[in-house]
Input
Amino acid sequence: MEVEGMLAPLSLSAKFEGSFAYLTVRDRLPTILTKVIDTIHRNKDNFFKDYGEEGVQAEKRAISFLSKMRNELQTDKPVLVLTDNAEDTETWNKYMERQQDLMEDGQPVSWFKSPWLYMECYMYRRIREALYLSPPMDNFDVFKEGKTESFFESQRAIISVCTYLQELITNMENMSEVQLQEHFLKLLQVSLWGNKCDLSISAGQDNSQKSNPIDSLPDLQRFILVDDSIKVWSTLVAGQGCGSSGMKRGRVDIVLDNAGFELITDLVLADFLVSAGLAKQIRFHGKSFPWFVSDVTKQDFEWTIMQTMASNHKWMSASGAQWKHFMKDGTWSYHDHAFWTSPHEFCDMPADAADLYAMLQDSDLILFKGDLNYRKLTGDRMWEHTVLFNRALRGFQAAPLCSIRTLKANVQVGLKSGHAEQLSSEDADWMTNGKYAVIQFSSSSKEH
Output
């Protein structure tokens, strides 16, 4: 696809031996598949208890399917079409045909030779297929245990951000705009660093947040490579109170990433936006089935609010009760769409998910959380680090948007000349170790 007369760079791929994509496909993806197989096997007695012999047969079928896929991955076999007749099966199979047309010398689409973004998404979709074809355990969330554990192990950090939020709300009436802005910037950074708790990056290892995140913000500031927080604030302030003229009315969309502590930081930020009058409506976007180990599904979203409400800590339960109220009165709403669990980069959205694109166009600000969203925004390509963020979006600009991510993949644009070279000399893994971060804003496709 061309952008402004220039061809977009190549996709990151495991075909580049020694690259982060290569190491991910070679090591991390098989590890995640092995954990999925173990999880299903460990739950064998539960499947028997719930479904009898049928449950045992389903468990065997799913494990056999996944073991075969792990072998296909490790030996770089051609990718198979999906056979589960789900609502998105045809979309995936058509995408595979598109990829086949792009392969050099008519080689088959395969795990190591095709774009990393596509293959990683494909693995999670095939996990879904394994379960879908194994009723009655077809709705089993193989990642739920990890997400639940991450939530409970982050209790101290959750209590500290909920306490901070409730104290803010109590004193909000007397705050100046400067004070509100200061608190907004802090909560945006809490949400940013919450993105470090990513179970797909640690291949399911403990990645919970145990310390008070507010206290560590000053020390982390220097690791934010691009910080467009003030532009985000200005966009929110500009979106206030312009309803009567038929213009937009303070609507913010948050495209979620991980469950557990990160989701709490997103809910706290969303609560602040509403309580401070910076947004009248928040739409959360999550995944329609378990995805990338720790991504939020509707079940995770609802469970998190209920667990927060049920806490015996007064500020945590007060936060949960408020969030339930926001959901009930429509101030907050949760949405999922098959596009978020498709292999498409976001510049495909107007053509491949016109309904979702139209919905986002009617937003004052879209916040994209996490690494996978950044990869899809930029097409997961080998961009020069100095290429403008806007340019890497390749025309995707439904509304003013901001990507909030800690770096865990080797794609990063919008840096000043020489910055990437300096980082590389200080820390060879700066693009992939989750230590660095960006809050990167784009207001319109016309800005360059």
